[in-house]
Amino acid sequence: MNEPIVKTNTENGICIVTINRPQSLNALNSALLDALAESIENIRTDNEIKIVLITGSGDKAFVAGADISEMAEMNTVQALHFSRKGQDLLRKIETMDKVFIAAVNGYALGGGFELALACDFIYASSNAQFGLPEVTLGIMPGFGGTQNLPRLIGPNRSKELIFSGKMLGASQAEAWGIVNKVVEQGTVLDEAKNIAETMMKNGLTAIGFAKETIRSGLNMPKNAAILHESSIFGNLFSTFDQKEGMSAFLEKRKALFSNM
Ligand code: CO8
Questions:
Q1: Same domain, 190 and 209
Q2: What is the pTM of this model?
Q3: How far is the CA of 107 from the centre of ligand 1 (A)?
Q4: Does 91 map to a domain?
Q5: N or C end: fewer C-beta atoms under 10 angstroms in the chain?
Q6: Which of 25, 69, 107 to mutate to test the pocket of ligand 1 (most atoms within 8 A of CB)?
Q7: Are residues 66 and 172 in the same domain?
Q8: What pLDDT tens digit does each residue of the chain (260 aa) get?
Q9: Which residue's CA is minimally distant from atom 16 of ligand 1?
């Protein structure tokens, strides 16, 4: 039987999503985007899954972009649908009250870099390369890159990357604030799992609300964002986890959160 193009494996609330098309450096074609969208929707409705790690199959690429051989044949309408399909998927990742970590194990180019940027943060192996080479193909990023990258590293560095199409190595990406941590080749998934396991011990409802507050606050004027934060902060005092977390501290024991 053929291997699935997207593999998922869940253990103890952490789901590993592996993009599995290594012969094309995990390039995103329509079938892969559909399979990824289906996996992400299953994850959204699975209450057992709290943290998602996205990685690529093989040791060469996370995702080397959208599939150029498929895109080469597209007309305007097909390209628009293709881009929307990708954007819908990424928006779901950005807005879901679960944590997404990109474990970048090689090339993260074009749509692949944009997929990593939609995650909450990125861990990268030392051989990772990041780039938005769309202009070398006569197009521009269409998967959120012109919006998410400038919000992360500012417009000037984004323009340098987008206009030149140049790749950034893992340590430079770390220095620019794109990557949270660079690790030895072959260990990125384990390192991402380690931080995920630390997070699993915390109040995951609170983490979900913190994610939403950070995301929505970045698109609001500061005064409104601060008000939004205090209202969410107040609401968390109606949760079991707030009672448990604070009681556990006062009773000098470990908190047993139930994510309610
Ligand atoms: N699309 C299709 N096939 C690809 C892609 C890709 N993006 N990247 C690599 N492949 C294929 C190659 O064609 C090759 O296939 P084959 O063996 O059949 O010839 C195989 O993967 C291995 O690749 P290479 O032999 O080229 O490997 P190298 O180690 O020599 O080079 C590189 C690796 C540098 C990563 C090189 O493959 C490369 O430059 N790839 C293209 C990168 C790129 O330009 N990506 C951006 C695409 S545009 C994009 O992502 C737009 C997103 C916006 C819209 C998204 C909507 C979803």
A1: no
A2: 0.96
A3: 9
A4: yes
A5: N
A6: 25
A7: yes
A8: 689 999 999 999 999 999 999 999 999 999 999 999 999 999 999 999 999 999 999 999 999 999 999 999 999 999 999 999 999 999 999 999 999 999 999 999 999 999 999 999 999 999 999 999 999 999 999 888 999 999 999 999 999 999 999 999 999 999 999 999 999 999 999 999 999 999 999 999 999 999 999 999 999 999 999 999 999 999 999 999 999 999 999 999 999 999 88
A9: 24
